[in-house]
Specification:
Blueprint lengths: L21 E3 L2 E3 L6 E6 L4 E7 L3 H17 L7 H17 L1 H12 L3 H23 L5 E3 L5 E9 L2 E5 L5 H14 L3 E5 L6 H12 L7 E4 L3 H9 L6 E5 L2 H13 L5 E4 L5 E4 L5 H13 L11 E5 L3 H14 L18 H16 L3 E4 L3 E2 L5 E2 L2 E4 L6 H4 L6 E7 L2 H9 L6 E5 L3 H10 L4 E4 L18 E2 L6 H5 L1 E9 L6
Parallel strand pairs: 7-8, 7-10, 8-9, 10-11, 12-13, 12-19, 13-18, 17-18, 19-20
Antiparallel strand pairs: 1-2, 3-4, 5-6, 6-22, 11-21, 14-17, 15-16
Helix pairs in contact: 1-7, 2-4, 2-6, 3-4, 3-6, 4-5, 9-10, 13-14
Bound molecules: adenosine-5'-diphosphate.
Length: 499
């Protein structure tokens, strides 16, 4: 394994931790209970800060602030153009602080600094500009109803939106949630993930510095079953959006239903296929399949974690996939040239190692990897399994780690059937030069995104979300606006007899 940039001499993160308290009504405040919880550096497992620990009382305070900001304004009452301008100012300020935000993201999450700075922050900024562009382009309809009536629809913000985000893309998913919701004029309470509370607070502070009025965006740190569930079940929250595991998604749905039937958007887990057809350029397919699986340490809901390879190229693909995994440089995510950082925490590391054991026990072939690197931090070898069968747990359960499972197939109809035989349906990758094969696969695969001969294209305008148990609703693009608007039909009689 290439652990050249070893994990012992670590780079000191080029950023300070300035914000650790809840951000409620434009002010940083301690938790009502006074409690804090530690947050860690995944490179070492050491505590880097103590963060205010939110409970029901903190959520109540944040929801009250958001309610007041919604009911009294100015945010929902501003012209859409004014909202758009503030969002553009926010995008500029976030862009200016991109390097610091990226460094803090790497420090708290373990993802590659280059990836945070060059891919994720630009996506954040672009997405804000995209939705700033939408804010003043949300048109209503005039409806041609029967009878003597003038009928129109108003598209109004829903109100106070609760948004719960996970730890794998703390900033990126923060932007996917708050961008469209703010553009539509809602006010928000965001609950960040307990593993990665730091960057959401920093970003939210920049939103205020750029001109967002107090109370519009409130950020509470804390644990899911306490702060998260208080938000999902709050009677004064009008909408809840969640990204995380399918198991927790089900809980959120229930809490929303049991409380006030607030509408729910869920972006959940996946077990996405990557299908390499017989006509593929094997070297390119290996590279794409590799990144589609190992990007972000494999901690992606849309990781293409079942690599289906046509039997005619299977042996060559396998050999090259293994060589690619062995070459991947594991080490300090701040270092240039490092390609894989640590997993987020010991719980995830243990979970992934458990999946690897299960793969070995059911006689999949461990081609490479499978072990922890060093004793400090949560580093794991890039792992490749071959001889994987559809009914093995490693081919069914979401592993959420750097584990590629390679399966063999014979023909297109067969691979569609097998790829669809999962409770998930988030994404799929297809690699072929044949247009007919691409079309057949694209139509046959039951997934919210199909990337053909490419992977992980996350443009702000492209909708993202899941079929089946991978989610409810779509985020990004025009589709996210529907999540944060409701429709009011307005009917006025027309007294002109000519009508
Ligand atoms: P993971 O297991 O990968 O941490 P989760 O889906 O549990 O993923 O977490 C995603 C987000 O959901 C986090 O912000 C977490 O705090 C929150 N969460 C976890 N459990 C609950 C719950 N019971 N109610 C509300 N939010 C929750």
């Amino acid at each position: 394994f290439n652990t050249a940039a070893q994990v012992d001499e670590l780079i000191t993160p080029p950023v300070e931790i300035r914000y650790t308290k809840h951000l409620i009504n434009g002010q940083f405040v301690e938790a009502a209970s006074g409690k804090t919880f530690p947050t860690y550096d995944p490179r070492t497992g050491e505590v880097i800060a103590h963060v205010s620990e939110g409970d029901e009382e903190d959520i109540n305070r944040a929801v009250s602030a958001a309610r007041k900001a919604f009911d009294e304004g100015p945010w929902p009452k501003m012209t859409a153009y004014e909202r758009s301008r503030i969002l553009l100012q926010i995008a500029d300020l976030v862009e200016k602080h991109s390097d610091e935000l990226a460094a803090l993201e790497t420090w708290n999450n373990g993802k590659l600094y280059e990836q945070a700075a060059k891919i994720e922050l630009p996506i954040f900024v672009r997405l804000l500009r995209y939705y700033a562009g939408w804010a003043d382009k949300i048109h209503r309809l005039t409806v041609p109803a029967d009878g003597n009536y003038h009928v129109q629809t108003l598209h109004e913000p829903i109100g106070v939106a609760g948004q719960i985000i996970p730890w794998n893309f703390p900033l990126l998913l923060f932007s996917w949630k708050v961008g469209p919701a703010l553009a539509c004029g809602n006010t928000l309470v965001v609950k960040t993930a307990e593993q990665t509370p730091l960057t959401g607070l920093f970003a939210a502070q920049l939103f205020h510095e750029a001109g967002l009025p107090p109370g519009v965006l409130n950020v509470v740190s804390g644990f899911g079953p306490v702060a998260g569930s208080a938000l999902a079940s709050h009677m004064d929250v009008d909408k809840i959006a969640f990204t995380g595991s399918t198991e927790t998604g089900k809980i959120i749905y229930q809490l929303a239903a049991k409380s006030n039937l607030k509408p729910v958007t869920l972006e959940l887990g996946g077990k996405s296929p990557f299908i390499v057809c017989e006509d593929a350029d094997v070297d390119k397919a290996v590279e794409l399949a590799h990144f589609a699986q190992f990007f972000n340490q494999g901690q992606c809901c849309c990781a293409r974690s079942r690599t289906y390879v046509h039997e005619r190229i299977y042996d060559e693909f396998l050999e090259k996939a293994k060589a690619t995994a062995l070459k991947r440089v594991v080490g300090d995510p701040f270092k240039k040239g490092v390609e894989k950082g640590p997993q987020i925490d010991s719980k995830q590391l243990e979970k992934i190692l458990g999946h690897i054991r299960s793969g070995i026990e059911c006689n999949a072939t461990l081609e490479c990897g499978g072990e922890r690197i060093g004793k400090k931090g949560f580093f794991l070898q890039p792992t490749v399994f071959s001889n994987v069968q559809d009914d093995m747990l490693i081919a069914k359960d979401e592993i959420f780690g750097p584990v590629q499972t390679i399966l063999k197939f014979k023909d297109t109809e067969e691979v569609i059937r097998r790829a669809n035989k999962t409770r998930y349906g988030l994404a799929a990758g297809v690699f072929t030069k044949n247009l007919d094969t691409a079309n057949t696969l694209m139509r046959g695969l039951r997934a919210g995104t199909v990337w053909i001969n490419c992977f992980n294209v996350f443009d702000a305008a492209i909708p993202f979300g899941g079929y089946k148990m991978s989610g409810v609703g779509r985020e990004k693009g025009i589709y996210s606006l529907h999540n944060y608007l409701q429709v009011k039909a307005v009917v006025t009689p027309l007294n002109d007899p000519a009508w």
